[in-house]
Amino acid sequence: MKMNTSTDYAIRILIYLAEKNGVTASAEISQHLSISQRYLLQVAAKLRDGNLVNVAMGPEGGYRLTAKPEEITMYDVIMLMEGTTFLVPSSATAEEEIRENHTINYVYQLLQSIWDAFLRGVSLDTMVNKPSDQIKAFTTEQLAERLHSIVAEVAEKMCYDI
To answer: 23, 42, 65 — which closes off a domain?
Structure first.
């Protein structure tokens, strides 16, 4: 998966808001993240429409998170901004070949399940507070626990599809 620049900015905006823990003016966000004010407003509008940020109007206005940082995951942000977390090639030929080859299909489904589980486990709180330690802990402990059930689910589904 290749993310758009707007998705990267959305993640950075949300992390900054999580660090600030309150209403933050768009001018401050723009300056801190070196994003043009115009582009920030476009990205923030999508975050607002996706219910990840609220807008407070007036002289003390700005943006704030709609939920606690631990409740907003990278999965939420990527799905909002990209519409998918899909990892496989998007060409029609590749998709047809994947459907026809159950082994490739199985591997891609497994990878997709692992990727989605990982993204759901990384919250804004994780990114703000000791990111490398918490992400490492997630990948080694929680992901290992989930891996067995994910493999079993995908294997069971594949048996029915074959």
So the answer is: 65
